[in-house]
Amino acid sequence: MRNLWLLYEMDLPFTLVVHEFGKALRSEAYLAKHPLGRVPSLEIDGKTLFETGAITEYLCERFHSPLGRVAGDSARMEWLQWLHYAETVAVHGATLTQQHIVIHEDKDRSPLLMKLETRRLEKALEVLDRHLEGRDYMLSTFSAVDVSLGYSVYVAQHIVKLAPYKALNAWFERISARPAYQKTQPKAGDTLIYTKAFYEIPVL
Length: 204
Known about the structure:
The chain is mainly alpha-helical. It is 50% helix and 3% strand.
């Protein structure tokens, strides 16, 4: 979703290939593109990239996008910081997604781990909330870091209530109203990861 959203924001022509989770991602053909059998992978300029942060940097630099910040730009350091902070937020969301959704049996879930990771996710969101006070976007204008962090917060909203984070919540409402974001959202008949709007920590 993160890189798809960026492609829509940049208005670049591309061909989207959708892979269902499962055996298709473990085929020899796909493993040649992404050795871990995960998504996304981007084929461009005769090569393949499979890390979302690297894809973001490459696309912004390759197409001289105003959504990036070039070397020498006064905002470059901050742009890089928030671009990669998106992974800090996402890793907690991924762990909790696994606990809530991927692990099907209650006996195999860890309420303790879920509580710890939820608190870590909350702390990561608190950093964003403080930064966004009095701001419309993470930097002075909308950029690729809003996209990268926007995806991480999209995941987080299924596990942590965003309402208490007033600045963060207002920012997420603002960026999720963008047409490019809307184009990434599931359509009727799509396979969903999150089938519920919010997942409570189960009492086991």
